[in-house]
């Protein structure tokens, strides 16, 4: 590996980058539209171009250095999808999981209400990520309309309460079942389609659900949305004034009213559901159905020739994923206290997909981490309000370039035949 | 009668624009198999560039329509092309050999970046351009009439010539042959001495250029735009590309026109509220019976 | 980053640090919530500018019983999800004593539940949907009117002044737009006029040619649109392009110079009717405030003065409640507040007792004036 640094090449690279950035930034940054007229901002433009040139020069030098060459080599050759651990590997998760659960259970009692709401949102996205991870990560079916199931869950709670008088706890399983049925209905026609046709059909499905929710004003309340009830604890309610015909929690126990209490309760219920889903998911991957999903992802034809029922496998993936999305929707509705169609746009689907890919396709731990990264970051960036979305977008691009396979790779413990048995 | 005819004309102009943008989706998909979600925002950027070029031209005292339109088209297409090249170079090329979904997420990030970048640079308010071409064409049919502004006529002519030129480039020139070769088999093409990385860059430039053409036409016609216009039209154009069979150039154009007509006729004759439901419903129906779109090649299953 | 943004950041930093210096005294924090980013950021800016000026003036006059008002900017991008999130943040982290905002009705409504739980008042300068005050929350107020009042004025004008019997009612399928369109439709129907068409368009789209052709086919003499300026502009442009010569009317959602750019030039907005509160800029009480805005190079259009007035109401409430933020609502309900827009008095729901909607007309020079006839 030659370690001599070719300055001339770097300079040429830098000049080219400067020229490009002049063309790219020139009109949009250098000239500010003002009605049909404009004003110029040459100094700002030059600053931007200078930043790009300095950056390019630094990168060019770094890439030529030995360390940079190493990184480049590593980047181009990280193609192995699954890391296989040696047989008998003891996972550190044994220690991490109980600690995480304890932290999770203590958190609501120490966190402020605002942090608690961000945590709730984070956990909702964990659920969504886990659901989509089954469809995209395990079964390899690209779904761009996952938000549809989310919407079904959220509206299921609100409309079920409004028309049928069901409360939170009865709608929770019902909404999951409804979403699963919707998943089956969607899954059926799309089974014939491959890869990206599937993507657009699911996208269409998500949009259709949102449009119906918007337009069917008499049933769904249209853009005004509908009220969603809070969860109750054996009939005790967590609002200042009881709305569902029960007794307010604070009156029952003769406590002063604390508006944070309802979030503590939502959080704890949500936390338990997330733990349960995580456990189920963890077991599923090791069960025949989970193995079948992954096998189908790797090679559909091989699977079918081995006698696996691909229709059933795909459908089950869709339904499992959808029901998890439905659960997330119920919690979202109750957390908001109100749902309307603007919460279920295509951008939401893209965000959930980003969680799955960023976390590492198929990796459960990765999804959990990515869900929190993607929900907490925008909240932290509130301080720099104007640049919030820009930084968020940059983060997505940089993360993908840095870790194209996601934060956490799937690992699998290898199997070895025990000696003396064969 | 006149109303149906007017709706056909509406659908055709809308569809031709969808087609122009769909070309960018379909070519990129054909060559590297990724959905370029930032493409709609490239179109949005081109709308801003159009307005900036127009403002510059009027500052230099150039007002004759043919000159203005020529310069606007030329400059906007070039600058937007550079945007396409830069985006590919920065956000997608480093991901060339990674998983299929990584560039997709990168593209979503890029789309957010472009939107926010334009919002910060040019402000959140909606912007406009002055009317360049006044006057309308009116044809009387019975009691009613069909009315088209000259601008609409210009859109139709320009959009279809744009597609014609592109078809010529892809079918007849060396560059086009190299594009098609790379699309069919990237490895083989590179063995035959084609610089596939460069070809992929060209494809992004071509896609951006077509989006720029659409951007100029639409901006001049509607006279207004904001930094959010890329999203809705991007989703529609992508739908059009899939409808026609993603990866197929004539398919994208056909898909665009069909989608435009379907939307127009449905909202005109039935109901505007549900026109998008109808558009997506149409797509799903077509895909159920032709899983690879109208003109797409069916995927071969090798055993 | 644009210069103006840089400047804004620096100014807000400077302001923040100067407030930090004051923090030794007990300051009173007030949240200003609205779409500071996103497609409706222009309206967010109006709210912020109005409230900032009001805070400056109130503080210069001695603050609230000696304490200074400090504003906290909260961005909801007109999304309910973000509105709930910032509302929690304002109540919990920033411990605000009251909130001016939000802009979109679809944000104000869910956020008001959070403010209610937190026991503070919310005064919106712009959300006109009736549902905002109809749910019986004690701490919600507005300095603008309600859609049903606005719709009544619009429908009466269509029937009495424009003498139209064929009206097409179009909305943008959003809480505000559809609410307004429904209110107008209700009043039209009440007066015996059945609309020839009632349909929604999609926010964010630009091509409404198909809808325009349909409007033409319906034979409508007047188009009533419930929605915001971006779609209203594109719609009126395309109506004119297809040779529609009838009237076009909309509500306070198009009260922005941006309506002219969105329509593609002043000639397209000529003759467009709009309902809006009696222009606060014509009010004598506001003359010196307006002069201050103009001196700072800012034209206080649209909701700027509504936001100014909202903070005045809140400040008066805080003063009257003597620092007990839970008593603010009670005080505002019981007293008349002099504001930059005249004296304001509230009914039990939190609506203004006097509705002052009047009809405006846009002209070919891109400005609007009150109709005289």
UniProtKB/TrEMBL annotation, chain A:
UniProt membrane topology term: Multi-pass membrane protein
Matches recorded under PANTHER family: HIGH-AFFINITY BRANCHED-CHAIN AMINO ACID TRANSPORT SYSTEM PERMEASE, HIGH-AFFINITY BRANCHED-CHAIN AMINO ACID TRANSPORT SYSTEM PERMEASE PROTEIN LIVM
Record keywords: Cell membrane, Membrane, Transmembrane, Transmembrane helix
Residue spans crossing the bilayer: 12-32, 44-63, 93-111, 117-139, 146-164, 170-190, 197-216, 260-280, 315-338, 350-373, 385-402
One Pfam family hit: DUF3382
Database matches in InterPro entries: ABC_transp_permease, LivHM_N, LivM-like
Subcellular location per the Swiss-Prot or TrEMBL entry: Cell inner membrane
Domain (High-affinity branched-chain amino acid transport system permease LivHM N-terminal) ranges: 10-106
Protein name, UniProt field: Branched-chain amino acid ABC transporter permease
Automatic annotation (TrEMBL), chain B:
Keywords: Amino-acid transport, Cell inner membrane, Cell membrane, Membrane, Transmembrane, Transmembrane helix, Transport
KW Heme (keyword) present: no
Source domain of life: Bacteria
CDD domains: TM_PBP1_LivH_like
Record field: transmembrane: 12-35, 42-62, 68-87, 149-170, 199-219, 225-246, 253-271, 277-296
Keyword hit for Transmembrane: yes
Membrane topology summary: Multi-pass membrane protein
Compartments it resides in: Cell inner membrane
Main location: membrane
Family indicated by similarity: Belongs to the binding-protein-dependent transport system permease family. LivHM subfamily.
Protein name: Branched-chain amino acid transporter permease subunit LivH
Upper lineage: Bacteria, Pseudomonadati, Pseudomonadota, Gammaproteobacteria, Oceanospirillales
From TrEMBL, chain C:
Organism: Pokkaliibacter plantistimulans
Protein name: Amino acid ABC transporter substrate-binding protein
Pfam family for this entry, one: Peripla_BP_6
Domain Leucine-binding protein: start-end pairs: 28-367
PANTHER family attached to this UniProt entry: AMINO ACID BINDING PROTEIN, LEU/ILE/VAL-BINDING ABC TRANSPORTER SUBUNIT
CDD domains reported for this sequence: PBP1_ABC_LIVBP-like
Signal peptide bounds: 1-23
Similarity comment: family membership: Belongs to the leucine-binding protein family.
Keywords: Amino-acid transport, Signal, Transport
InterPro entries per record: Leu-bd, Leu_Ile_Val-bd, Peripla_BP_I
């Amino acid at each position: 590996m030659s370690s001599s640094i070719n300055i001339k090449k770097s300079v040429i690279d830098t000049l080219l980058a400067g020229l490009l950035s002049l063309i790219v930034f020139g009109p949009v940054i250098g000239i500010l539209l003002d009605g049909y007229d404009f004003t110029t901002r040459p100094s700002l433009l030059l600053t931007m171009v200078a930043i790009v040139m300095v950056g390019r020069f630094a990168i060019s030098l770094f890439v030529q250095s030995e360390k940079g060459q190493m990184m480049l080599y590593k980047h181009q050759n990280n193609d192995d999808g699954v890391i296989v651990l040696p047989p008998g590997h003891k996972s550190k998760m044994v220690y991490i999981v109980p600690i995480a659960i304890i932290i999770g259970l203590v958190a609501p009692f120490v966190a402020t209400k605002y942090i608690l709401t961000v945590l709730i949102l984070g956990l909702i996205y964990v659920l969504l990520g886990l659901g989509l991870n089954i469809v995209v990560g395990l079964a390899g079916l690209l779904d761009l309309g996952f938000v549809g199931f989310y919407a079904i869950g959220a509206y299921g709670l609100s409309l079920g309460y409004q028309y049928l008088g069901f409360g939170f706890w009865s709608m929770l399983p019902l909404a999951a079942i409804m979403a699963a049925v919707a998943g089956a209905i969607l899954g059926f026609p799309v089974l014939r389609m491959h890869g990206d046709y599937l993507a657009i059909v699911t996208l269409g499905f998500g949009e259709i659900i949102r449009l119906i929710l918007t337009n069917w004003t008499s049933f769904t309340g249209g853009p005004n949305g509908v009220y969603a009830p809070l969860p109750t604890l054996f009939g005790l309610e967590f609002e200042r004034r009881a709305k569902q015909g029960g007794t307010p929690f604070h009156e029952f126990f003769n406590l002063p009213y604390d508006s944070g209490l309802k979030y503590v309760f939502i959080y704890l219920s949500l936390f338990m559901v997330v733990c349960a889903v995580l456990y189920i998911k963890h077991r599923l991957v090791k069960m025949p159905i989970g193995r079948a999903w992954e096998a189908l992802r790797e090679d559909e034809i091989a699977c079918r020739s081995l006698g696996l029922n691909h229709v059933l496998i795909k459908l089950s993936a869709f339904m499992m994923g959808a029901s998890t999305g439905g659960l997330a929707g119920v919690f979202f509705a109750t957390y908001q206290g109100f749902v309307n169609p603007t919460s279920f746009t295509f951008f939401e689907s893209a965000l959930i997909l980003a969680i799955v890919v960023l976390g590492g396709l198929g990796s459960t731990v990765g999804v959990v981490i990515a869900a929190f990264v993607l929900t907490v970051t925008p909240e932290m960036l509130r301080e720099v309000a104007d640049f919030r979305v820009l930084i968020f977008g940059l983060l997505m691009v940089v993360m993908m370039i840095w870790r194209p396979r996601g934060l956490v790779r799937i690992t699998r413990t290898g199997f070895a035949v025990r000696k003396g048995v064969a | 009668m006149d109303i149906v005819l007017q709706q056909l004309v509406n659908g055709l102009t809308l569809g031709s624009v969808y087609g122009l943008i769909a070309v960018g989706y379909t070519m990129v998909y054909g060559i590297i198999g990724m959905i370029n979600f930032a493409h709609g925002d490239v179109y949005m950027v081109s709308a801003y560039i159009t307005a900036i070029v127009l403002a510059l031209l009027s500052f230099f005292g150039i007002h004759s329509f043919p000159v203005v339109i020529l310069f606007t088209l030329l400059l906007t297409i070039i600058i937007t092309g550079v945007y396409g090249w830069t985006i590919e170079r920065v956000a997608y090329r480093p991901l060339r050999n990674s998983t299929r979904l990584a560039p997709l997420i990168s593209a979503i990030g890029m789309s957010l970046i472009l939107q926010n970048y334009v919002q910060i640079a040019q402000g959140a308010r909606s912007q406009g351009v002055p009317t360049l071409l006044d006057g309308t064409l009116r044809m009387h049919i019975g009691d009613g009439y069909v009315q088209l502004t000259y601008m609409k006529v210009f859109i139709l002519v320009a959009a279809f010539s744009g597609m014609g030129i592109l078809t010529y480039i892809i079918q007849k020139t060396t560059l086009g042959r190299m594009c098609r070769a790379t699309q069919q088999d990237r490895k083989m093409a590179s063995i035959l001495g084609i610089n596939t990385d460069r070809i992929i860059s060209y494809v992004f430039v071509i896609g951006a250029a077509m989006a720029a053409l659409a951007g100029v036409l639409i901006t001049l016609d509607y006279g207004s735009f904001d930094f959010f216009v890329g999203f809705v039209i991007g989703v529609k154009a992508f739908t059009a590309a899939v409808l026609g069979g993603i990866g197929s150039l004539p398919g994208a154009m056909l898909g665009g026109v069909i989608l435009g007509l379907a939307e127009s006729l449905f909202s005109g004759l039935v109901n505007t509220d549900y026109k998008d439901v109808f558009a997506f419903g149409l797509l799903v129906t077509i895909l159920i019976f032709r899983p690879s779109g109208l003109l797409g090649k069916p995927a071969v299953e090798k055993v | 980053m644009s210069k103006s943004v840089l400047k804004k950041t620096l100014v807000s930093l400077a302001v923040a640090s100067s407030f930090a210096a004051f923090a030794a005294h007990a300051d009173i924090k007030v949240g200003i919530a609205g779409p500071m980013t996103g497609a409706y950021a222009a309206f967010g800016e109006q709210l912020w500018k109005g409230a900032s000026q009001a805070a400056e003036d109130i503080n210069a006059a001695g603050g609230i019983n000696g304490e200074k008002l400090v504003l906290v900017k909260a961005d909801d991008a007109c999304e309910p999800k973000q509105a709930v999130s910032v509302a929690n943040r304002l109540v919990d982290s920033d411990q605000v004593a009251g909130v001016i905002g939000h802009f979109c009705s679809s944000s104000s409504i869910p956020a008001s539940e959070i403010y209610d739980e937190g026991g503070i008042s919310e005064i919106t300068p712009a959300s006109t949907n009736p549902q905002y005050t109809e749910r019986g929350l004690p701490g919600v107020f507005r300095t603008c009117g309600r859609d049903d009042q606005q719709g009544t004025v619009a429908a009466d004008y269509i029937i009495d002044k424009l003498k139209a019997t064929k009206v097409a009612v179009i909305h943008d399928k959003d809480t505000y737009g559809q609410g307004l369109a429904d209110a107008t439709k209700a009043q039209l129907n009440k007066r015996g006029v059945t609309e020839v068409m009632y349909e929604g368009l999609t926010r964010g789209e630009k091509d409404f040619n198909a809808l325009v052709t349909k409007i033409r086919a319906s034979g409508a003499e007047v188009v009533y649109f419930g929605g915001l300026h971006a779609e209203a502009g594109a719609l009126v442009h395309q109506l004119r392009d297809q040779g529609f010569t009838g009237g076009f009317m909309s509500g306070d959602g198009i009260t922005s110079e941006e309506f002219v750019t969105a329509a593609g030039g002043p000639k397209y907005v000529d003759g467009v009717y709009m309902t809006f509160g009696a222009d606060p800029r014509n009010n004598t009480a506001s003359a010196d405030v307006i002069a201050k805005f103009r001196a700072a190079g800012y034209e206080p259009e649209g909701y700027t003065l509504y936001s100014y007035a909202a903070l005045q109401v809140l400040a008066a409430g805080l003063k009257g409640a003597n620092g007990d933020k839970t008593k603010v609502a009670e005080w505002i309900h019981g007293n008349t507040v002099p504001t930059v827009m005249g004296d304001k008095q509230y009914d039990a729901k939190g609506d203004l007792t006097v509705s002052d909607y009047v009809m405006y007309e846009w002209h070919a020079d891109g400005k609007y004036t009150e109709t005289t006839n």
